[in-house]
């Protein structure tokens, strides 16, 4: 059962504050999509980059409107602005530090931040210098949180852009920094036309060195993209992955007199069954999936809404799902807000929302002992 959009927004506003004080896990968050608007304005002025407005609230609203426009081109406009100011070690360090502080303020205790160092070399930074600068900022942020008696652990995911064919270089970069903050690897960028099989050697290199990978798949392309991420990309997790629901068929439904609602029987195709049975984690970003059209195929008519998202079906069928923001600046969201929206849309209680945190933590690239310690903290708080 789902609720109306207006009811969901009202309930979400009331629930978000409560959720902000509970420990959470974020696995799919892009550094360049999560810059503070105030920082973007200040750094843009320093480098002579022109923004649509100099007012932080107006800038945030501009990006939100673009994200909700239904145009991927407009959605991506924000990244041209953030990338323009993230080209020096000093600026990367600042953005990374603030990233950690903002997540901690939202109650996140573990995060894996993804970004593509190859996109930050316009002013002469080497790939290694870029990674070192971001790690310095992450360390400063974690130390600042700890000084206020807070807890947060953040690891880097080095992303390679599919369209640039620098995956081999990015893999070697990730391996060089695996003991200095890098916890895994990712490929991002346009899915269609750039399958993981193009980078099979890079993924084999990762596997031989036992560095885990997550792969963007099932967002901008369909089932074959998911299949290739699992086969060629050897993905331990799927970035978004929501279009795996295309491999699920409703074969019949019948009324349940006791529950007062319909009960659906479904059939899982081979890709969906593999993902479900192997518990391949889906890094779902609900609002972003609506904005980018990733769930357009599941909408009954017109522009997709959150109630059209297959998230609840996947969860009810036993898929390993987690909740993420994708790009906090671009979409105008927080993790607490995303959880509150899901709770209102699909009538989840705290027990279900806690499940999503444990799913994400257990699927993270953190070490076993560290996962166990954070899991105990999460379970105690959410109870």
UniProtKB/TrEMBL annotation:
Its cofactor is Zn(2+). It comes from the Bacteria. Pfam families: A_deaminase (PF00962). One of its GO terms (molecular function) is hydrolase activity. It is an enzyme of class 3 (hydrolase). Keywords: Hydrolase, Metal-binding, Zinc. Its EC number is 3.5.4.4. Residues 23-378 form the Adenosine deaminase domain. NCBIfam families: PRK09358.1-2 (NF006847). Belongs to the metallo-dependent hydrolases superfamily. Adenosine and AMP deaminases family. PANTHER family: ADENOSINE DEAMINASE. This is adenosine deaminase. It comes from Nesterenkonia halotolerans.
